[in-house]
Predict the structure.
Amino acid sequence: MPHRFTPTPKDKFTFGLWTVGNAGRDPFGLPTRRGMSPAEIVDLLGEVGGVHGVNFHDNDLVPIDASASEAETIKSDFGKALKRTKLKVAMATTNLFSDPAFRDGAFTSNDAEVRAYALQKTMKAMDLGAEFGAQVYVFWGGREGVETDGSKDPIEAEQRFRRAIDFLCAYSIDKNYGYRFALEAKPNEPRGHMYFPTTGHYLAFIPTLRHPEMVGVNPEVAHEHMAGLNFCHGVAQAIGADKLFHIDLNDQEFGRYDQDFRFGAANPKGAFFLVKLLEEAKYQGFKHFDAHAYRTSDRDDVIEFARGCMRTYLILKDKARQWSEDSDIRSLLKQINRGGKDLDALSVRYSKAHAETLRAMKFDRESLASRPLPYEKLDQRTMEILMGV
C-alpha cells in the first residue's frame, strides 16, 4: 500500500514546463541553473514520481523563432519523453506577454495588426496543445492593461478582449478540439494596471460571451494574495458558479511581487482551508502547481520542490479529514450553526405569504446578540490540528 502522502497520477497533480524548468532568473539576476529542453523537463517530472501531467505555453515547447524542422524535432523528443514517463499534457496556453510585439497588450492592443497577430499565435498554440491532447486552455492576459488610463478606452479594451475570446471559442468548436477555456486574473504586474484583476471580474465577464458554457476561470493563489485578497473565497465563488475549470496552486506573501513559492510555504493555514474547500466540493479538475523552486536550488532541490508541493497538498487533505472528524470541532460547529428549517423555508423562494409571515414575526435582538460564537476556540483548535497537537 502506498503511503497516503505519496502522490499518484490519480491525484491529477500537474506542473508547467516553465515551473520546474525555471532556470532561476529574476529581474535582478541571471539564471542560476542550467536550462533544460522540454524533453529533459518531462524526464525530471518522471523522476519526481506521482505526477499526472505537464503543461506548456506555446514557446515553452517550441521557441518563437524555431524553424519548421527544429519544431518537429522538439515535438518528437517531447512526445518520446511523454511516453517514457507516461505523463499526459493536461493544459496548454499562449505566451502573449514576453515578445516586445505585445508591449501594449495582445487582444486589447491599440494596434489592429497586433490584435490579429495575437489571434493567429493563439490559434497555432491551440493546434499545438490539441496535438498533445490538452483538455484545458488557459488565458492569462499578462500585458492586457495600461500604465496610464489615457492610453486606452477601457470599455473598448474589454470589448476587444470579448471579441477575441468569442473568436477563439468558435475556432475550438470548428476544429472540434473540445477545449474548456479558463481565464486567469492578476491584480498587477507586469502592467501598472491590469484589466480583469480578480477572479470575480472574470466571473462577471463570462456571461457576456457568445459561448459562456465553454469558459470558466483559472484562479491562482499568488495572484489573489498579491492584492491581500482571500483566495479561498474567490475559489468558492467560482465553484458556486460551476466555473472552476482549472486552478494554479503556489504560495505568496501578501503585498509582495509575484513570488510563486512552493504550495503552502508562506501561508499554511490559508492553504489548509483551500484544500479543505476543494476536497469537500469534490473538485475533479487538474491541480496545477504554478510555482518555482528557490533561486538557490540545484536540480536535486528542484525535485524536492516538486515533491514538496504535492506532499503538502496531501498532508493538508489528511488534516482536512481530521478537522471534520474532530470531536471538539464538531461540537463547536454544532454550537455555532443554529439551524431552522421552517425559517429557511420562508426565504428559499419568494411568495407573498412568506413575505407577510416574515414581516409579522417578532425577533428578540438582545437574544440574537448574546448567543455565543466561540470562533477563537474554533481557530485555536484548527491551529492545533495543523500543528499536530
